[in-house]
Amino acid sequence: MQPVTRIGARFTTWTCKSCRDALRGQHHAARPNVPSRFFASTRKLNRGNLPDSPARTRFAPSPTGNLHLGSIRTALFNYLLARKTKGQFLLRLEDTDQKRTIPGAEERLYRDLQWAGLEWDEGPVINGPYGPYRQSERLSSYHAHIQGLLQASKAYRCFCSAERLDDLNRRRHDKGLNLGYDRKCADMPVDEAEQRAHSGEAHVVRFRAPETWPRYRDLVYGHTGHGEKANKKLYVDAPVWEDAILIKSDGFPTYHWANVCDDHDMRITHVVRGSEWMASTPLHIAMYAAKEWTPPLYAHVPLLVDQNKQKLSKRNFDTDIASFRDKGIFPEALVNFAALLGWSHQQKSDIMSLRELEQSFDLKITKGNTVVSFEKLRFLQEQHGRRRISAGGDYLEQLIRDVAVSLLNKEGAAKIAALVGKRNLRDVVASMLHAESLAFSSPLDFAEKCSIFVTPPRRPKLDIEDSQLVKELHIAASTLLFVPESQWTQATHSENLKDMDFHGPDADPKSKKKWKGQLYHYLRWALLGGVPGPNIPQTMEILGRPICVDRIQRAISESSQESKQRENMSTRPQILKTATDASTWSAIKSEATAKS
Question: Where is the Glutamyl/glutaminyl-tRNA synthetase class Ib catalytic domain (predicted)?
Fold first, then answer.
């Protein structure tokens, strides 16, 4: 038993759960002008809120700028839902705001979607059975649908001037009242309204909103909406209503009306969009009810915010898709990154291609705002880079060309020629890319990591003080240089280092392992100055035989001098001690002779 307050009642009662459910069902059924099908869709859902029949989804951007991270995520979720259910993914251009349309934005939009791999089944360019797919070419449809609402008095023509509306809102604002429309034109006779409209008098068409806004089932947030919030607002001043404009004075539809008409006409079954549109969804549901259309199912995805929990801003982050592409981000890495922004998957790894996402996707999406961490994008970029390198083929060849250009630009042709020697630049760069510890994030970043191979290292002093061990390491390192140029490969060096043993087969395993570790340490000091990098066999293959011979010989010379210096320093205390002992003995002997 839990306390529950009946809406509209003046008392509080205790009601059991079964009774509360029954009362809730009666309450929903009693709502005016909104059939029960608008509260619970008849479409069956399975695990992960996925439909058991093909879904028709759409991405409907405006050609008013570049696609950004949030919009590509919305497009991706709609695309994945359609692919997962073997449905269709539509592209529709919402270009009714002609003043904000930017020349070239439509072509950039196509290019960005295709770069990301999000191919649409119906839409501009390829068309389809429910076209046209530009709203500016569908004006006759919006006007045809509005006639039914006008005839049923569910919409009306409003001839109020902008000055009157501004004055109405200003007076209400000064009194601290909510803004809205006072329905001055709502009860105008239809004949009079039609005559004034046909004469060319400027006007808009308004939706006659219901007394209360409907609730709806969101596939992410559950049953939601404005609840019992009344549309009519009663104050000491005249009441006002939230009667949204459907057709503007220029004859173009507003976003809300065009959105509802298009989704209905194009047979859209599911709409995935940003949570900022949740406030408008009750209005859309009410429009569907007024037309007696079945609405699609809605899934609102969380807002993207930065580390400070603020909405991602263009002032602080360059999130345009074109900027990611220009920085060398792989499309599969960006798509993978966008998919993880609010989606809770069941896979063992976060690293997924578009095809893998199609197989795994569901609507298990978090409700709270999603914090965007671009460190995750860097990680995914490196992992997808490894996939491209392992796959070989055209992907690898393109990476080789890009890295080669970056190396030449950064280091200069002379240094690169010295590194490559008689080898092929393509093969040297390929060896760099296959090195396990050199993660690829971009050509420029990778070229920076590879500077350890191009520029001779500045070695610190060797931190091995055992002179006998140093001599053994000199011999071992020199032995590796006997490999001929034709066999100078990672595989050869791996085998030689594996077989190298200065202690014999009967030596203690721990001693042998320790000595092998000291050899690797010495070789890294000799070849790379001790800095982190690929394993020794990979390093030797990348550097090539001439450079390895030069660096190891120089390292042997340096470490030999350091070893001799340490030996000289270690004998000086013994010499001083011997001299002191002789002097003391002589003094004692002289004193004894004098006493006798």
Answer: 56-371
